[in-house]
Specification:
The chain is α+β, with helices and mostly antiparallel strands and about 500 residues long. The chain has 18 helices and 17 strands. It is about 35% helix and about 15% strand.
C-alpha cells in the first residue's frame, strides 16, 4: 500500500489513444487543458549512415492518397529508443525528402511495438514537459485503450518505473476516463462512442466497469469523413473554378487537386462550419434544386446577399412580414464564404453531409482517398454497431446503459450535435410505446451526455478532450488518497514488481 503524498503541481497526466497523445503537468482547482498534443505515429527512415527509426508525433497524416495509416510492416528486431527521432529532427528529415515508412504503435487498439511506445512517452515527458529523469518527482496517471492484456499493463508499468523513473504510477482505461468527465450523481452506466481518425470504438459501461465482451470497433473515422466531403466539394463548380481554374497556366495534377480538396475539407471542419444532419435530411436537400445549384448563385452575384441575410437574421426580427419571409427564403440557402489559401470560396449545404459516412459507410465505396480497411465485414453503420454492442450486455443493464450515450473523439472538437444525431438513429433499439408498469427492463429512451459547462477551461472546446479531463479527475482523487490504494509508488514497485499495478490502479481492481 502506498503512503507517499504528492503535490498537485507535480502530477503528470498522459492520455494515449489510437492516434494521439495528450499530456500535461499539474492539477489545479480549475482543471487545465493539455499542454502537449501529439499524433502517436512513428516513421522509419533509410539513411545513408544506416537504418534509423523515426517517430512522427505532430499533425495529421500527410495525404490520404499515400495510405500512410496503420501499417502492418514490422520494425526489425534490435531497435532502440535512441534510434527514433521525434519532433524537429523528424521534420528536418521529412523536409530533406528521405524515404520514410509509417508506423502507428497504438493504431490497432493494442501496443504493436513497445520500443516505439516508449520513445513517444519519453519524448512527451522529457522533451515537451521538460522533466528530468534523474530528479523525477512526478507521479503519472496514464489513460490508454481498454482491453489490453495483463502482460501489457505490467510491461507499461515496468517502462514508467525503470525507464522513466517516475515517483508513482497508475493506469486507467481510456473509455472510463471519458465517461468520468461527463457523468453526475450516481450514474455508473452508459456507452462511450470514440470517433478517432480511422476507427470508431464503442464501449458499453455497466456499474462503473467496461463490458469487454460487448466492446466493438468500426473501421470508419474522421479521415473518411474528410475524404467524403472532399469528394462532394469536387462536384461544386464554384469551388473547382477557384482551386483548379480552366485557364490556369499550370493546371494542378490529380494528386495535387485531391490534396487541396482534403485540405479544404479539413479547413471547413476546423472552422466549425459543419452541423450534423438529422436522419433523412440530406435526401430532402438533394431534391431541392435551388439549394444545390451554388454555381448559378455565384454567377448571378447573389452569394453576398444570401450570406448577409443570414448574418442579419436577428436584426430583421422586427421587420415587416414580407421582409421576414424573404429573409427566411434567403437563409434557407445556407451559404457561407470562407478564406482558404488566400482565396474566397462559397460553400453550400453539401458541407453538412460531412458525417454521413459514419451512419452509412457504403457511401465511401469508390471515393478517392479512402483506403481499404480490414476486416471489411466490420464496416457497418455506427448506429448498428452501438445497438449491437448494447445488445450484448445483460438484459437488466441495457435500460441504464442507454441513459448515458456519449459521443467523443477528435471529430467532436469542431462539430456539435453528434450525440443527438446518433440517439435519433438508434431508435429501432428502443420501445416506441413502452408499457412502464409491466416492463421495467426494456429500454424506453436514450439520454445523451456532454462535458458539463462548470469545467470552465473545457467550455466551448467540444467533447474531444473528455479523456484528458476524466484522467485529470481520477488523478486528483487517486494521488491525494492518504491510503494510497489506487496507484503504485516506488516502494511498492521495488517490493512486488510490475504485477502490483494490476491490483493498485483505478481500472484494474
Amino acid at each position: 500500500m502506498s503512503s507517499t503524498s504528492f503535490r498537485d503541481s507535480t502530477v503528470v497526466i498522459i492520455e494515449t489513444s489510437r492516434t494521439s497523445i495528450r499530456a500535461g503537468i499539474g492539477l489545479h482547482d480549475l482543471l487545465h487543458l493539455p499542454t502537449v498534443v501529439r499524433r502517436s505515429r512513428s516513421r522509419w527512415i533509410q539513411a545513408q549512415c544506416g537504418r534509423r527509426y523515426i517517430l512522427h508525433t505532430n499533425g495529421f497524416r500527410p495525404s490520404l492518397n499515400t495510405s500512410p495509416g496503420p501499417s502492418t510492416f514490422k520494425a526489425p528486431n534490435g531497435a532502440k529508443v535512441t534510434d527514433y527521432l521525434v519532433g524537429a529532427h523528424l521534420d528536418e528529415a521529412l523536409q530533406a525528402g528521405q524515404d520514410i515508412t509509417v508506423f502507428w504503435p497504438f493504431a490497432d487498439g493494442d501496443i504493436s511495438d513497445y520500443i516505439q511506445a516508449e520513445a513517444l512517452w519519453y519524448y512527451v515527458l522529457f522533451n515537451q514537459l521538460g522533466l528530468r529523469r534523474a530528479q523525477m518527482e512526478s507521479p503519472v496517471m496514464l489513460s490508454i485503450m481498454a482491453g489490453l492484456s495483463r502482460d501489457a499493463y505490467e510491461r507499461i508499468c515496468q517502462i514508467f518505473f525503470e525507464r522513466f523513473n517516475v515517483a508513482g504510477f497508475a493506469v486507467l482505461d481510456r473509455p472510463m476516463a471519458q465517461f468520468y468527465a461527463v457523468i453526475s450523481g450516481m450514474q455508473l452506466s452508459g456507452v462511450v462512442v470514440d470517433i478517432d481518425l480511422d476507427h470508431t470504438d464503442v464501449t458499453p459501461i455497466a456499474d462503473g466497469f467496461p463490458v469487454h465482451t460487448a466492446r466493438t470497433a468500426v473501421p470508419v473515422g474522421l479521415n473518411d469523413c474528410l475524404a467524403y466531403l472532399a469528394h462532394l466539394l469536387r462536384a461544386n463548380t464554384s469551388v473547382m473554378a477557384v482551386l483548379a481554374p480552366a485557364d490556369a497556366a499550370a493546371p494542378l495534377s490529380a494528386d495535387a487537386l485531391q490534396d487541396a480538396l482534403i485540405a479544404l475539407a479539413r479547413h471547413v471542419w476546423e472552422s466549425g462550419l459543419i452541423k450534423v444532419l438529422a436522419e433523412g435530411e440530406a435526401a430532402r436537400d438533394l431534391e431541392d434544386e435551388g439549394v444545390t445549384d451554388i454555381a448559378a448563385i455565384v454567377v448571378a452575384g447573389k452569394e453576398r446577399a444570401v450570406i448577409e441575410s443570414g448574418m442579419k437574421r436577428r436584426a430583421n426580427a422586427k421587420a415587416q412580414p414580407a421582409e421576414q419571409a424573404r429573409a427566411k427564403e434567403m437563409e434557407a440557402l445556407d451559404l457561407v464564404t470562407t478564406e482558404f489559401r488566400g482565396k474566397e470560396l462559397t460553400l453550400g449545404k453539401e458541407r453538412h453531409r460531412f458525417c454521413e459516412p459514419l451512419f452509412d459507410p457504403a457511401l465511401l465505396d469508390g471515393i478517392p482517398g479512402v483506403p481499404e480497411k480490414e476486416p471489411r465485414d466490420m464496416r457497418r453503420p455506427l448506429q448498428t454497431a452501438v445497438g449491437e454492442a448494447v445488445a450484448k450486455t445483460d438484459v437488466d443493464q441495457r435500460n441504464y446503459i442507454w441513459q448515458g450515450l456519449f459521443v467523443t473523439g477528435a471529430i467532436t472538437d469542431h462539430i456539435k450535435g453528434l450525440g443527438a444525431a446518433l440517439s435519433d438513429r438508434v431508435s429501432p433499439y428502443i420501445l416506441s410505446a413502452p408499457d412502464v408498469l409491466n416492463n421495467e427492463v426494456q429500454p424506453r429512451a436514450v439520454k445523451t451526455l456532454r462535458v458539463p459547462d462548470y469545467f470552465a477551461e473545457y467550455r466551448d472546446k467540444g467533447d474531444g478532450l473528455a479523456g484528458f479531463l476524466g484522467t485529470s479527475i481520477v488523478a486528483k482523487l487517486a494521488f491525494n488518497d492518504s491510503g494510497g490504494k489506487n496507484y503504485v509508488s516506488k516502494a511498492d514497485y521495488a517490493s512486488k514488481g510490475p504485477r502490483i499495478v494490476l491490483g493498485m490502479s483505478p481500472s484494474l481492481l
